[in-house]
Amino acid sequence: METIENLVISLTGKDNMLADANLRKLENISSGNDKVAAFIPSFLSMLESSNSFVRTRGLRLLVLNSNKDYGNLIEGHLSDLLNMLNDKSPIAVRQLLKSLPILAERRPDLKNQIIEALAKASFSQYRDSMAPLLEKDREIALDILGK
Fold first, then answer.
1. Structure pTM?
2. Could you give all domains of the chain from N- to C-terminal order, each with its CATH number?
3. Could you tell me the pLDDT band of residue 2, with boundaries at 50, 70 and 90?
4. CA-to-CA distance for 7 and 80, rounded, in angstroms?
């Protein structure tokens, strides 16, 4: 039987196609109820994975369910989340930059910290082909956030 728990467990597995398919299922389920939000601790732990795909899956579900974070777990781990602005994978950073305005919309109490982290972020450690894209993504995120 395909339970939410089994779908969440599969997100960290070696089968990326299955994990991505299950990510989309969990995203669809998330839009209709708060059952996936019970796994926010799992999504937070995924941010610490050595695999950038796993980190990105955790990020997407974390942001999508952030308005259902009744225990304020995200607030307690916001620095971990914002540290992804320095992720070794520029693709993961781009996903984060696109997700932060959504997080701020769903959790207005975190908006100022998000803006501050975006303003301080440096992308000089990335290749010349990626750094300008990250800068542009940051500008877009700050514009959406009204800064």
1. 0.92
2. 4-144 (1.25.10.10)
3. confident
4. 24
Q: What angle do CA 60, 63, 67 make, to 5 degrees?
A: 150
Asked if residue 124 lies in contact with residue 138, where contact means CB atoms within 8 angstroms, the answer is no
CA–CA separation, 36 vs 123, rounded Å? 33
In degrees and rounded to multiples of 5, residue 144 shows phi and psi of: -60, -35
Cα–chain center distance at 89: 13
Please give the angle made by the CA atoms of 52, 115 and 93, to the nearest 5 degrees: 15
- Which of these, 97, 88, 89, 95, lies nearest to 57 by C-alpha position? 95
What is the C-alpha separation between 21 and 133, in angstroms, rounded?
A: 27
Q: What is the pLDDT of residues 42-100, one digit of tens each?
A: 999 999 999 999 999 999 999 999 999 988 999 999 999 999 999 999 999 999 999 99
